[in-house]
Fold this sequence. Notes:
Elements: H1 17-27, H2 35-48, H3 61-66, H4 68-71, H5 75-91, H6 106-109, H7 111-118, H8 122-139, H9 142-151, H10 156-173, H11 176-195, H12 199-213, H13 223-229, H14 235-245, H15 259-265, H16 267-275, H17 279-282, H18 289-325
Amino acid sequence: MVWWVRPANDSFGTDFYPFYAASTALQAGLSPYGTEMREHFLALWQQYHLPFASVGFVYPLPAVIGLMPLLLLPLPAALAAWLVFGAGGSYCAILLREHWRLLVLLPFLFMPLHRAILVKQPALIWFALTVVLLFAMRWRWSWLVGYCIVMLPGKPQAGLLFAIVGLFWAWHQDRRSLLWTAGWGALIWGGAWVLEPFWVSDWIASVRYYTSVAPTPWLLPWGILLMALCCRLPWYAQVGVAQVVLFPLSDIYSALPLLLAWVGIGGRLALAGSACTWLWYGLGLPNEFSVFWALVIMPLAVCALVRLTPTVRKHWRSWRTRQAAL
């Protein structure tokens, strides 16, 4: 784990830095979406080759406000906390299974997690928040359920579906969580409008510009087949698959919610299947959509089919028995 969370060869934190810079801008009374921020990122591009620096900050403002206690730390400490929480929370996904000791190597074998750690991607934090939500629901920690529900839409392509599931669960299982959700929402999302009344239009403009310079592919419509193959996995695994299929992809780290599917599959099959993702690095393959399909989606589809086959056979035999009885 120490090797995984080690800093890369940069002093500002790659994909983490836009969040830190946005919080600094807010403290200085500036807009995170303003021209000052873009000029700042462009200067970093010349020094560190920061990807898509001209786009500026492309996340909803409440995502920054909700993480402000972390972002108020000095940069090295904030970066360390970002990595430890993101990597540690993501690793804890294996604890969702009763026999989790069989999966202790699973997070290390799933290369999208390593990629997210390497570039300090916000997807890492949002996946950790997803795992925290799942455990908070299990333990009925209403205040934490509410916080996660409010935070997860801050990166829609990484957590929106889990926020919706959290709301559904809160309504049916623990309505105190709805009160906490309302309170956290007023503080985090309401605070965003107080600080920047026009942040929504500024954010949408940044996202539109980002998609124009960095096209994001989708797994639809063929990704629906993957969702069907995973229909017998635990519910959290099915939501994780849907979270990847129903939203655009930015990089291999966009597959991070699929770690929940591998947890749902479990056993040696999950270890072998997830390890296929490392062929991307091992073979030196390009960062292309076809490679994503071949090394991330197809192994999961095959392993999900292996897990599904006994269930299909059982239902088939049951149907044949009923037909014979008629």
